[in-house]
Amino acid sequence: MQLSKREIQMLLKLIEQEKSITAKELADMFRVSVRTVKYDLDNIRYWLKLRNIELHSQRNKGFWFELSDVQKLTLKNELLETDRFDIYADQQARVEFIVMNLLLAEKMKTTAWFASQLEVTQNTIVSDLEKVDSFLNKFTVTLERQSGQGIFLNGREKDCRLLMEYLLQLKLTEYDIYKIMNSFLNPLAEESQSLSLGKGTDFHDIYQHVVRMMSQVLDPDLLNQFNYAELLSISIRTAIAVCRLRLNHSIASFKLIQRQETLIKNRDIPFLLMQAVFSQYELPLFEDEYEFISSNLIEESDQQDTLQLTVKLIQDVSDELNVPFYEDHQLLTNLFAHLSLRLGKKHVFINEYNPFVEDIQNLHEELFTAITKACQQEIATFAHVMNDSFIAYIALHFLVSFEKQKKEMIQVVYVCSTGLGVTNLIQQRVQEEVHSVNIIGFASVLNAVEMIQEKKPDLVISIFPIEGVQCPLIKVNAIPSKEDIETIKTVVQHLLAKDNRRLNYSKPYRREQRLENSEELSRETIVKGYIIYEKLVTIFDQRLKKEYQDAFLLHVFLMVHRIVFQSQYHLEGNVNQEMLFENNQLLLEVEQVFSENDLSVNHAELTALLQYVDIYTGGYDEG
């Protein structure tokens, strides 16, 4: 017997589970009824019985396996090795089959041909073509019908190739990835003879040849040029280029590569592979084909402020889901680093393999939708990279942040001298030192009692003694000392140990961006200057020139003042690009400090700042 596609996925999920899982949980994962899950499990049990494997179950507990790791791996590999065409073809599988075969067709195909190949009626294929139309929309490719002749695809060559790449990567499994990578490194290994990518099409044979060629050009000392996902994309794109060129579909112009000697000298992997494979198929080395294979799709003019983009994405998702992701500075740091690497690379592979896509779409649909919407709003010059894989990788960062917000937190109202002015400094200092504290409001002595009654905090921290408070109160100095911080930590730990419930998450205090008058603006600027100064001293550490330490304080304050009042140093003539490049890692930390305080610093200001620091040629010294 053969399992359906959903049954195979369900069985894989059961194998991967470390503990039991209920039918209801499986139904939620696969978006079907509990009854449907039970029918699927009956088929799965029968399939397993033929292999002398038992699926254990217990009422109110669920289903689980009692297998060794070796047994699980063997079973998983058998499932992943199952021929795609031996699986019952549901409508989505038929849609993908139709599109892939049209992309590889030398001439038009008829509905009768597809019906014969898929062993269904022509009426079924006609019905499937409506889904094909819908599926093709997001790739800007259309399905054309010609009476009496058949059907074919129409669209720009780049779009057709991206569609083909998407379909190929969609079918990849972790086991496929392992086999392909192993074949790159060990061409004589058994795996190199059993690759299943594109099986049943002309692409399969061509890709087998590409993999063999990749193993020859991929010297060990070249491996650091790309990661495994990029090598995978390069190999797939090379095979796609061969398939399409053999059908007389070139990507653009017929201009030959003029810089071949340079690419050979640089031992450029995409070119070396392209040269080896194209010579076997007697294909010319076109420049545009190389650009496609190497994914050199980003023009120099395609620039977008990545930090500003990161801030906007976080704010948009926060607003959409009503979750204050914008308060998580670590999210900003991590997502900024991810997007900088993803969008700043020369080689941007659009359909990058991502094993998390399906799980994130199924388990976190609302988050996935919110991020997709935010990306569509904010990403302009990189719109072509926005696919499910790209969104899923971003979602992982938000999920980490969301899990942190779900942890037990002690809700705090902080009472200071005025309720204004130094709140930013206090909030940053306390929450950096005491990670289980969530400051939900600042109050002055005049409105403290009212705010405490309104917020109902777990703890009050105050520079004044306050009577009649129904929750614990800690009296601290105007700016919390080390002793104050230790006292707060002790009380917070006691509260968490005493009350083992998961405390409700309240929205953290967030000061309004609009400042009411010049006095408040000045006060805010001074506080930000001091916060940034302290951070920069820590970052620069021993590198800060001793003779300039006093001047450094004044420079930072004036620097913050210039940024706030939009009068930063002019870029022209004031930027040392070589110095900035050599100290890139150090400056990323500096820029992060400014971004945490809602300030954006330009390269001229960074160049000036480095004059106070002992810097080293070739990058800053970690020691």
TrEMBL record:
CDD domains: PTS_IIB_bgl_like (cd05568)
InterPro entries: BglG_antiterminators, HTH_11, PRD, PRD_sf, PTS_EIIB_2, WH-like_DNA-bd_sf
Domain PTS EIIB type-2 stretches: 410-500
Pfam families hit by this protein: HTH_11, PRD
Residue stretches making up the PRD domain: 301-408
Entry keyword annotation includes Nucleotide-binding: no
Alphabetically ordered keywords of this record: Repeat, Transcription, Transcription regulation
Domain of life: Bacteria
UniProt cross-references to PANTHER family, sorted A to Z: CRYPTIC BETA-GLUCOSIDE BGL OPERON ANTITERMINATOR, TRANSCRIPTIONAL REGULATOR MTLR
Protein name: Transcriptional antiterminator
Provenance organism: Candidatus Enterococcus willemsii
Taxonomy of the source species: Bacteria, Bacillati, Bacillota, Bacilli, Lactobacillales
